[in-house]
Amino acid sequence: MNRYSSQKKLLAAVDCIIFGFDGQQLKILLIQRGFDPEKGKWSLMGGYVQPDESCNEAASCILKELTGLEGVYLKQLQVFSDPNRDPLERTISVTYFALINIHDYETQISDDYHAEWFPVNKFPKLIFDHNDMVNIARKQLQHEAAIHPVLFELLPPRFTLPQLQGLYEGIYNTQLDKRNFTRKLLSTGLLTRQSDKDKQGSRKGAFFYKINKKAFRQNYLQKDFFLGIK
Amino acid sequence: MNRYSSQKKLLAAVDCIIFGFDGQQLKILLIQRGFDPEKGKWSLMGGYVQPDESCNEAASCILKELTGLEGVYLKQLQVFSDPNRDPLERTISVTYFALINIHDYETQISDDYHAEWFPVNKFPKLIFDHNDMVNIARKQLQHEAAIHPVLFELLPPRFTLPQLQGLYEGIYNTQLDKRNFTRKLLSTGLLTRQSDKDKQGSRKGAFFYKINKKAFRQNYLQKDFFLGIK
Protein backbone atom coordinates (compact mmCIF):
# COMPACT_ATOMS: atom_id res chain seq x y z
CA MET A 1 0.00 0.00 0.00
CA ASN A 2 1.29 3.43 -0.91
CA ARG A 3 -0.20 6.78 -1.85
CA TYR A 4 -0.94 5.58 -5.38
CA SER A 5 -3.26 2.84 -4.23
CA SER A 6 -4.25 3.86 -0.70
CA GLN A 7 -7.65 5.50 -0.80
CA LYS A 8 -8.52 7.24 2.41
CA LYS A 9 -11.59 9.36 1.87
CA LEU A 10 -12.20 12.78 3.31
CA LEU A 11 -14.75 15.58 3.24
CA ALA A 12 -14.60 18.45 0.78
CA ALA A 13 -16.21 21.81 1.46
CA VAL A 14 -16.22 25.21 -0.20
CA ASP A 15 -15.99 28.59 1.54
CA CYS A 16 -16.74 31.95 -0.09
CA ILE A 17 -15.08 35.28 0.71
CA ILE A 18 -17.38 38.02 -0.58
CA PHE A 19 -15.96 41.53 -0.65
CA GLY A 20 -18.26 44.43 -1.33
CA PHE A 21 -17.87 48.18 -1.71
CA ASP A 22 -20.75 50.41 -0.63
CA GLY A 23 -19.26 53.60 -2.04
CA GLN A 24 -17.44 54.41 1.20
CA GLN A 25 -15.97 51.30 2.74
CA LEU A 26 -14.72 47.90 1.69
CA LYS A 27 -16.80 45.25 3.45
CA ILE A 28 -17.00 41.52 3.83
CA LEU A 29 -20.12 39.37 3.94
CA LEU A 30 -20.30 36.95 6.89
CA ILE A 31 -22.85 34.57 8.23
CA GLN A 32 -23.83 33.47 11.69
CA ARG A 33 -23.71 29.71 11.69
CA GLY A 34 -27.02 28.01 12.26
CA PHE A 35 -25.53 24.55 12.72
CA ASP A 36 -22.89 22.71 14.70
CA PRO A 37 -19.98 22.74 15.16
CA GLU A 38 -19.49 26.36 16.30
CA LYS A 39 -23.21 27.18 16.06
CA GLY A 40 -23.89 30.89 16.59
CA LYS A 41 -20.35 31.95 15.66
CA TRP A 42 -19.46 33.98 12.59
CA SER A 43 -18.02 32.32 9.54
CA LEU A 44 -17.59 32.57 5.82
CA MET A 45 -20.35 31.14 3.71
CA GLY A 46 -19.68 27.51 3.03
CA GLY A 47 -20.90 23.95 2.95
CA TYR A 48 -20.01 20.45 1.83
CA VAL A 49 -19.54 19.51 -1.79
CA GLN A 50 -22.29 17.08 -2.78
CA PRO A 51 -21.80 13.90 -4.86
CA ASP A 52 -23.38 15.31 -8.01
CA GLU A 53 -21.72 18.72 -8.22
CA SER A 54 -18.32 20.24 -8.86
CA CYS A 55 -16.74 22.61 -6.34
CA ASN A 56 -17.61 25.59 -8.57
CA GLU A 57 -21.23 24.51 -8.69
CA ALA A 58 -21.28 24.02 -4.91
CA ALA A 59 -19.92 27.53 -4.34
CA SER A 60 -22.52 29.24 -6.55
CA CYS A 61 -25.27 27.17 -5.04
CA ILE A 62 -24.24 27.88 -1.44
CA LEU A 63 -23.93 31.58 -2.10
CA LYS A 64 -27.42 31.59 -3.52
CA GLU A 65 -28.90 29.51 -0.72
CA LEU A 66 -27.37 31.55 2.09
CA THR A 67 -27.64 35.06 0.74
CA GLY A 68 -29.97 35.03 -2.24
CA LEU A 69 -27.12 36.40 -4.36
CA GLU A 70 -27.21 35.20 -7.94
CA GLY A 71 -24.96 35.82 -10.89
CA VAL A 72 -21.93 36.77 -8.80
CA TYR A 73 -18.64 35.91 -10.45
CA LEU A 74 -16.79 33.65 -8.02
CA LYS A 75 -13.11 33.07 -8.53
CA GLN A 76 -11.42 29.99 -7.14
CA LEU A 77 -8.76 31.04 -4.71
CA GLN A 78 -6.94 28.14 -3.07
CA VAL A 79 -7.40 24.96 -1.15
CA PHE A 80 -7.01 24.91 2.63
CA SER A 81 -6.08 21.41 3.66
CA ASP A 82 -4.18 21.33 6.91
CA PRO A 83 -5.02 17.90 8.38
CA ASN A 84 -6.22 19.51 11.63
CA ARG A 85 -8.10 22.51 10.29
CA ASP A 86 -11.51 21.08 11.18
CA PRO A 87 -11.56 19.59 14.68
CA LEU A 88 -14.33 17.09 13.97
CA GLU A 89 -13.36 15.43 10.74
CA ARG A 90 -10.73 15.71 8.03
CA THR A 91 -12.15 18.31 5.64
CA ILE A 92 -10.41 20.17 2.87
CA SER A 93 -11.90 23.47 1.84
CA VAL A 94 -11.81 25.04 -1.60
CA THR A 95 -12.10 28.81 -1.23
CA TYR A 96 -13.71 31.27 -3.63
CA PHE A 97 -13.76 35.00 -3.63
CA ALA A 98 -15.86 37.68 -5.25
CA LEU A 99 -15.96 41.46 -5.50
CA ILE A 100 -19.30 43.15 -5.77
CA ASN A 101 -20.76 46.59 -5.72
CA ILE A 102 -23.01 46.30 -2.67
CA HIS A 103 -25.69 48.61 -4.05
CA ASP A 104 -26.12 46.37 -7.10
CA TYR A 105 -27.10 43.47 -4.89
CA GLU A 106 -28.62 44.86 -1.71
CA THR A 107 -32.17 43.85 -2.45
CA GLN A 108 -31.05 40.30 -3.13
CA ILE A 109 -29.51 39.48 0.24
CA SER A 110 -31.90 37.15 1.99
CA ASP A 111 -32.61 37.44 5.69
CA ASP A 112 -33.14 33.73 6.19
CA TYR A 113 -29.60 32.94 7.24
CA HIS A 114 -28.45 36.06 9.02
CA ALA A 115 -25.82 37.20 6.53
CA GLU A 116 -24.30 40.56 7.38
CA TRP A 117 -21.79 43.02 5.90
CA PHE A 118 -18.85 44.00 8.13
CA PRO A 119 -16.12 46.57 7.46
CA VAL A 120 -13.09 44.63 6.25
CA ASN A 121 -10.97 46.28 8.92
CA LYS A 122 -13.31 45.37 11.74
CA PHE A 123 -15.17 42.10 11.79
CA PRO A 124 -15.69 39.35 14.37
CA LYS A 125 -13.26 36.49 14.87
CA LEU A 126 -14.21 33.68 12.53
CA ILE A 127 -14.30 29.92 13.07
CA PHE A 128 -11.56 27.46 12.13
CA ASP A 129 -9.04 28.92 9.65
CA HIS A 130 -11.52 31.35 8.10
CA ASN A 131 -9.50 34.39 9.19
CA ASP A 132 -6.54 32.98 7.25
CA MET A 133 -8.81 32.56 4.25
CA VAL A 134 -9.83 36.20 4.44
CA ASN A 135 -6.17 37.24 4.65
CA ILE A 136 -5.27 35.25 1.56
CA ALA A 137 -8.25 36.66 -0.32
CA ARG A 138 -7.22 40.14 0.67
CA LYS A 139 -3.70 39.58 -0.64
CA GLN A 140 -5.24 38.42 -3.89
CA LEU A 141 -7.34 41.56 -3.99
CA GLN A 142 -4.23 43.69 -3.43
CA HIS A 143 -2.50 41.83 -6.23
CA GLU A 144 -5.40 42.42 -8.61
CA ALA A 145 -5.68 46.05 -7.58
CA ALA A 146 -2.02 46.47 -8.55
CA ILE A 147 -2.38 44.84 -11.95
CA HIS A 148 -5.63 46.60 -12.73
CA PRO A 149 -5.15 49.83 -10.75
CA VAL A 150 -8.81 50.62 -10.88
CA LEU A 151 -11.20 47.94 -9.80
CA PHE A 152 -14.09 48.13 -12.21
CA GLU A 153 -16.26 45.62 -10.46
CA LEU A 154 -16.45 47.54 -7.23
CA LEU A 155 -17.06 51.04 -8.47
CA PRO A 156 -20.25 52.80 -9.41
CA PRO A 157 -20.14 54.28 -12.94
CA ARG A 158 -19.32 57.72 -11.49
CA PHE A 159 -17.29 58.08 -8.33
CA THR A 160 -15.25 60.66 -6.44
CA LEU A 161 -11.59 60.52 -5.45
CA PRO A 162 -12.44 60.28 -1.73
CA GLN A 163 -14.58 57.24 -2.55
CA LEU A 164 -11.76 55.64 -4.50
CA GLN A 165 -9.34 56.41 -1.69
CA GLY A 166 -11.71 54.72 0.78
CA LEU A 167 -11.71 51.64 -1.40
CA TYR A 168 -7.92 51.44 -1.65
CA GLU A 169 -7.51 52.10 2.06
CA GLY A 170 -9.78 49.13 2.70
CA ILE A 171 -7.90 46.91 0.28
CA TYR A 172 -4.47 47.78 1.63
CA ASN A 173 -5.62 48.16 5.22
CA THR A 174 -3.79 51.44 5.56
CA GLN A 175 -4.27 55.22 5.57
CA LEU A 176 -3.22 56.89 2.34
CA ASP A 177 -2.05 60.47 2.02
CA LYS A 178 -4.79 62.32 0.14
CA ARG A 179 -2.54 64.60 -1.91
CA ASN A 180 -0.15 61.85 -2.98
CA PHE A 181 -2.99 59.48 -3.76
CA THR A 182 -4.72 62.05 -5.94
CA ARG A 183 -1.54 63.07 -7.75
CA LYS A 184 -0.45 59.51 -8.45
CA LEU A 185 -3.84 58.37 -9.55
CA LEU A 186 -4.47 61.28 -11.90
CA SER A 187 -1.00 60.83 -13.42
CA THR A 188 -2.08 57.43 -14.73
CA GLY A 189 -4.49 59.08 -17.15
CA LEU A 190 -7.04 56.43 -16.22
CA LEU A 191 -9.64 58.81 -14.86
CA THR A 192 -11.73 61.37 -16.68
CA ARG A 193 -13.09 64.23 -14.60
CA GLN A 194 -16.76 65.03 -15.02
CA SER A 195 -18.18 68.55 -14.92
CA ASP A 196 -20.33 68.11 -11.82
CA LYS A 197 -19.62 67.48 -8.15
CA ASP A 198 -20.83 65.23 -5.40
CA LYS A 199 -21.82 67.59 -2.56
CA GLN A 200 -22.81 64.92 -0.04
CA GLY A 201 -19.40 64.48 1.60
CA SER A 202 -18.41 68.12 2.10
CA ARG A 203 -19.65 71.64 1.38
CA LYS A 204 -16.89 72.18 -1.17
CA GLY A 205 -17.85 68.96 -2.88
CA ALA A 206 -15.78 66.47 -4.85
CA PHE A 207 -15.75 66.11 -8.60
CA PHE A 208 -17.13 62.94 -10.10
CA TYR A 209 -14.81 60.86 -12.23
CA LYS A 210 -15.28 58.10 -14.74
CA ILE A 211 -12.83 55.46 -15.83
CA ASN A 212 -11.17 56.18 -19.14
CA LYS A 213 -11.63 52.70 -20.55
CA LYS A 214 -9.56 53.35 -23.62
CA ALA A 215 -6.52 54.43 -21.62
CA PHE A 216 -7.08 51.51 -19.28
CA ARG A 217 -7.03 49.04 -22.12
CA GLN A 218 -3.98 50.62 -23.70
CA ASN A 219 -1.85 50.93 -20.61
CA TYR A 220 -2.88 48.28 -18.20
CA LEU A 221 -3.91 45.20 -20.08
CA GLN A 222 -0.42 43.83 -20.49
CA LYS A 223 -1.94 40.56 -21.55
CA ASP A 224 -1.52 41.92 -25.04
CA PHE A 225 2.16 42.47 -24.59
CA PHE A 226 3.45 39.46 -26.44
CA LEU A 227 0.32 38.56 -28.30
CA GLY A 228 0.56 41.87 -30.10
CA ILE A 229 3.83 40.97 -31.79
CA LYS A 230 2.75 37.99 -33.80
CA MET B 1 -30.35 16.48 5.74
CA ASN B 2 -28.87 19.23 3.57
CA ARG B 3 -25.43 20.25 2.37
CA TYR B 4 -24.56 21.75 5.74
CA SER B 5 -24.93 18.48 7.59
CA SER B 6 -24.69 15.84 4.86
CA GLN B 7 -21.20 14.44 4.87
CA LYS B 8 -20.49 12.33 1.84
CA LYS B 9 -16.79 11.60 1.68
CA LEU B 10 -14.68 11.52 -1.43
CA LEU B 11 -11.08 11.06 -2.51
CA ALA B 12 -8.65 13.93 -2.90
CA ALA B 13 -5.63 13.74 -5.16
CA VAL B 14 -2.99 16.15 -6.39
CA ASP B 15 -1.61 16.39 -9.93
CA CYS B 16 1.51 18.30 -10.94
CA ILE B 17 2.12 20.06 -14.25
CA ILE B 18 5.89 20.56 -14.55
CA PHE B 19 7.06 22.85 -17.35
CA GLY B 20 10.74 22.99 -18.18
CA PHE B 21 12.89 24.94 -20.59
CA ASP B 22 16.00 23.28 -21.96
CA GLY B 23 17.36 26.41 -23.62
CA GLN B 24 15.56 25.67 -26.90
CA GLN B 25 12.10 24.32 -26.24
CA LEU B 26 9.40 24.48 -23.62
CA LYS B 27 8.71 20.97 -22.35
CA ILE B 28 6.43 19.13 -20.00
CA LEU B 29 7.30 16.29 -17.65
CA LEU B 30 5.02 13.25 -17.89
CA ILE B 31 4.98 9.83 -16.35
CA GLN B 32 3.93 6.43 -17.59
CA ARG B 33 1.51 5.09 -15.03
CA GLY B 34 2.68 1.97 -13.21
CA PHE B 35 -0.69 1.26 -11.62
CA ASP B 36 -4.34 0.84 -12.51
CA PRO B 37 -6.57 2.36 -13.73
CA GLU B 38 -5.02 3.26 -17.08
CA LYS B 39 -1.76 1.44 -16.34
CA GLY B 40 0.86 2.06 -19.03
CA LYS B 41 -0.74 5.30 -20.23
CA TRP B 42 0.82 8.73 -19.88
CA SER B 43 -0.30 11.07 -17.16
CA LEU B 44 0.69 13.98 -15.00
CA MET B 45 2.45 13.16 -11.78
CA GLY B 46 -0.10 12.67 -9.06
CA GLY B 47 -1.38 10.61 -6.17
CA TYR B 48 -3.83 10.60 -3.30
CA VAL B 49 -3.64 13.02 -0.42
CA GLN B 50 -2.85 11.08 2.75
CA PRO B 51 -4.53 11.61 6.15
CA ASP B 52 -1.54 13.32 7.76
CA GLU B 53 -0.56 15.79 5.04
CA SER B 54 -1.88 18.93 3.37
CA CYS B 55 -2.33 19.07 -0.40
CA ASN B 56 0.82 21.19 -0.72
CA GLU B 57 2.81 18.60 1.21
CA ALA B 58 1.36 15.81 -0.91
CA ALA B 59 2.38 17.59 -4.13
CA SER B 60 6.00 18.13 -3.05
CA CYS B 61 6.23 14.61 -1.77
CA ILE B 62 4.81 13.05 -4.94
CA LEU B 63 7.09 15.10 -7.15
CA LYS B 64 10.07 13.90 -5.15
CA GLU B 65 8.96 10.26 -5.12
CA LEU B 66 8.23 10.07 -8.84
CA THR B 67 11.02 12.15 -10.28
CA GLY B 68 13.60 12.74 -7.58
CA LEU B 69 13.05 16.48 -8.00
CA GLU B 70 13.52 18.41 -4.78
CA GLY B 71 13.20 22.07 -3.94
CA VAL B 72 10.94 22.88 -6.89
CA TYR B 73 8.55 25.74 -6.20
CA LEU B 74 5.07 24.37 -6.83
CA LYS B 75 2.21 26.79 -7.22
CA GLN B 76 -1.34 25.71 -6.54
CA LEU B 77 -3.37 26.11 -9.68
CA GLN B 78 -6.98 25.01 -9.34
CA VAL B 79 -9.23 22.19 -8.31
CA PHE B 80 -10.71 19.83 -10.88
CA SER B 81 -13.86 18.38 -9.45
CA ASP B 82 -16.27 17.29 -12.13
CA PRO B 83 -18.25 14.45 -10.50
CA ASN B 84 -17.37 12.09 -13.37
CA ARG B 85 -13.74 12.99 -13.95
CA ASP B 86 -12.46 9.70 -12.52
CA PRO B 87 -14.43 6.71 -13.80
CA LEU B 88 -13.77 4.52 -10.77
CA GLU B 89 -14.49 6.71 -7.79
CA ARG B 90 -15.37 10.33 -7.02
CA THR B 91 -12.01 12.06 -6.76
CA ILE B 92 -11.26 15.76 -6.74
CA SER B 93 -7.82 16.78 -7.88
CA VAL B 94 -5.86 19.80 -6.71
CA THR B 95 -3.42 20.80 -9.46
CA TYR B 96 0.01 22.36 -9.05
CA PHE B 97 2.36 23.77 -11.58
CA ALA B 98 6.02 24.57 -11.70
CA LEU B 99 8.50 26.13 -14.10
CA ILE B 100 12.04 24.87 -14.04
CA ASN B 101 15.23 25.24 -15.98
CA ILE B 102 15.73 21.66 -17.11
CA HIS B 103 19.52 21.82 -16.95
CA ASP B 104 19.37 22.78 -13.28
CA TYR B 105 17.59 19.57 -12.46
CA GLU B 106 18.59 16.99 -15.06
CA THR B 107 20.75 14.92 -12.77
CA GLN B 108 17.94 14.71 -10.23
CA ILE B 109 15.30 13.05 -12.39
CA SER B 110 15.04 9.48 -11.24
CA ASP B 111 14.62 6.60 -13.68
CA ASP B 112 12.52 4.52 -11.31
CA TYR B 113 9.15 5.72 -12.54
CA HIS B 114 9.70 6.40 -16.21
CA ALA B 115 9.28 10.16 -16.14
CA GLU B 116 10.00 11.81 -19.47
CA TRP B 117 10.15 15.33 -20.92
CA PHE B 118 7.97 16.01 -23.97
CA PRO B 119 7.78 19.16 -26.12
CA VAL B 120 4.78 21.12 -24.91
CA ASN B 121 3.45 21.26 -28.47
CA LYS B 122 3.70 17.52 -29.00
CA PHE B 123 3.00 15.07 -26.23
CA PRO B 124 0.88 11.93 -25.91
CA LYS B 125 -2.79 11.98 -25.00
CA LEU B 126 -3.13 11.92 -21.23
CA ILE B 127 -5.55 10.07 -18.98
CA PHE B 128 -8.77 11.49 -17.50
CA ASP B 129 -8.91 15.30 -17.65
CA HIS B 130 -5.14 15.73 -17.53
CA ASN B 131 -5.06 17.40 -20.95
CA ASP B 132 -7.46 20.04 -19.62
CA MET B 133 -5.16 20.52 -16.65
CA VAL B 134 -2.21 21.15 -18.96
CA ASN B 135 -4.29 23.67 -20.92
CA ILE B 136 -5.21 25.58 -17.79
CA ALA B 137 -1.62 25.57 -16.59
CA ARG B 138 -0.51 26.85 -19.94
CA LYS B 139 -2.99 29.72 -19.76
CA GLN B 140 -1.62 30.55 -16.32
CA LEU B 141 1.88 30.51 -17.76
CA GLN B 142 0.80 32.90 -20.53
CA HIS B 143 -0.75 35.16 -17.93
CA GLU B 144 2.44 35.21 -15.86
CA ALA B 145 4.58 35.74 -18.93
CA ALA B 146 2.52 38.83 -19.69
CA ILE B 147 2.79 40.31 -16.20
CA HIS B 148 6.47 39.49 -15.86
CA PRO B 149 7.53 39.68 -19.49
CA VAL B 150 10.70 37.78 -18.81
CA LEU B 151 10.39 34.51 -16.99
CA PHE B 152 13.32 34.41 -14.63
CA GLU B 153 12.79 30.88 -13.47
CA LEU B 154 13.14 29.31 -16.86
CA LEU B 155 16.15 31.14 -18.18
CA PRO B 156 19.82 30.47 -17.76
CA PRO B 157 21.72 33.51 -16.39
CA ARG B 158 22.86 34.38 -19.92
CA PHE B 159 20.67 33.69 -22.91
CA THR B 160 20.24 34.68 -26.54
CA LEU B 161 17.23 36.25 -28.23
CA PRO B 162 16.57 33.11 -30.33
CA GLN B 163 16.44 31.14 -27.07
CA LEU B 164 14.01 33.59 -25.55
CA GLN B 165 11.90 33.52 -28.70
CA GLY B 166 11.78 29.73 -28.51
CA LEU B 167 10.53 29.96 -24.96
CA TYR B 168 7.76 32.42 -25.81
CA GLU B 169 6.76 30.45 -28.88
CA GLY B 170 6.33 27.42 -26.63
CA ILE B 171 4.32 29.36 -24.07
CA TYR B 172 1.98 30.94 -26.61
CA ASN B 173 1.97 27.96 -28.94
CA THR B 174 2.61 30.15 -31.94
CA GLN B 175 5.32 31.33 -34.32
CA LEU B 176 6.59 34.84 -33.59
CA ASP B 177 8.09 37.18 -36.13
CA LYS B 178 11.77 37.46 -35.26
CA ARG B 179 12.21 41.14 -36.09
CA ASN B 180 9.09 42.30 -34.25
CA PHE B 181 9.88 40.12 -31.27
CA THR B 182 13.40 41.50 -30.99
CA ARG B 183 12.31 45.11 -31.42
CA LYS B 184 9.50 44.90 -28.90
CA LEU B 185 11.55 43.04 -26.35
CA LEU B 186 14.54 45.38 -26.53
CA SER B 187 12.23 48.40 -26.27
CA THR B 188 11.28 47.28 -22.76
CA GLY B 189 14.76 48.05 -21.50
CA LEU B 190 14.65 44.80 -19.59
CA LEU B 191 17.59 43.16 -21.31
CA THR B 192 21.26 44.07 -21.17
CA ARG B 193 23.39 42.94 -24.08
CA GLN B 194 26.65 41.24 -23.21
CA SER B 195 29.83 41.66 -25.21
CA ASP B 196 30.16 38.06 -26.37
CA LYS B 197 28.17 35.77 -28.61
CA ASP B 198 26.80 32.28 -28.61
CA LYS B 199 28.15 30.66 -31.79
CA GLN B 200 26.40 27.30 -31.41
CA GLY B 201 23.20 28.19 -33.25
CA SER B 202 24.62 29.87 -36.35
CA ARG B 203 27.93 30.95 -37.82
CA LYS B 204 27.07 34.61 -37.34
CA GLY B 205 26.26 33.91 -33.70
CA ALA B 206 23.77 35.57 -31.33
CA PHE B 207 24.67 37.98 -28.58
CA PHE B 208 24.13 36.87 -25.02
CA TYR B 209 21.78 38.96 -22.90
CA LYS B 210 21.15 39.26 -19.20
CA ILE B 211 18.08 40.50 -17.44
CA ASN B 212 18.35 44.06 -16.19
CA LYS B 213 16.91 43.35 -12.78
CA LYS B 214 16.78 46.97 -11.75
CA ALA B 215 14.67 47.97 -14.76
CA PHE B 216 12.52 44.92 -14.21
CA ARG B 217 11.79 45.90 -10.64
CA GLN B 218 11.09 49.50 -11.57
CA ASN B 219 8.83 48.89 -14.52
CA TYR B 220 7.13 45.60 -14.06
CA LEU B 221 6.49 45.05 -10.40
CA GLN B 222 3.33 47.09 -10.29
CA LYS B 223 2.66 45.63 -6.89
CA ASP B 224 4.34 48.78 -5.63
CA PHE B 225 1.94 51.03 -7.49
CA PHE B 226 -0.32 51.94 -4.63
CA LEU B 227 1.93 50.90 -1.80
CA GLY B 228 4.40 53.55 -2.93
CA ILE B 229 2.01 56.39 -2.17
CA LYS B 230 1.52 55.89 1.53
CATH topology of the largest domain in chain A: Nucleoside Triphosphate Pyrophosphohydrolase
User: What would CATH call the homologous superfamily of the largest domain in chain A?
Assistant: Nucleoside Triphosphate Pyrophosphohydrolase
Using CB atoms under 8 Å apart, which protein chain pair has the greatest interface?
A-B, 60 and 59 residues
Determine the N-to-C terminus distance of chain A: 51 Å
Give the proportion of residues in helices of chain A: 25-40%
Describe the structure in your own words:
The structure is a homodimer of 230-residue chains. Helices cover 30% and strands 27% of the residues of chain A. Chain A contains seven helices and ten strands. Chain A has two domains: 10-147, Nucleoside Triphosphate Pyrophosphohydrolase (Alpha-Beta Complex); 150-222, Arc Repressor Mutant, subunit A (Orthogonal Bundle), CATH 1.10.10. Residues 222-230 of chain A have low confidence and may be disordered. In chain A, strand 9 and strand 10 (206-211) form a beta hairpin. Chain A has helices spanning 55-67, 102-105, 130-147, 161-172, 178-187, 213-220, 224-227; strands spanning 11-21, 26-32, 42-43, 45-48, 75-80, 91-101, 115-119, 159-160, 191-198, 206-211. By secondary structure, chain A is of the alpha+beta class. In chain A, strands 1, 2, 3, 4, 5, 6 and 7 form a seven-stranded mixed β-sheet that branches. Chains A and B meet through helix 1, strand 5, helix 3, helix 5 and helix 7 of A and helix 1, strand 5, helix 3, helix 5 and helix 7 of B.
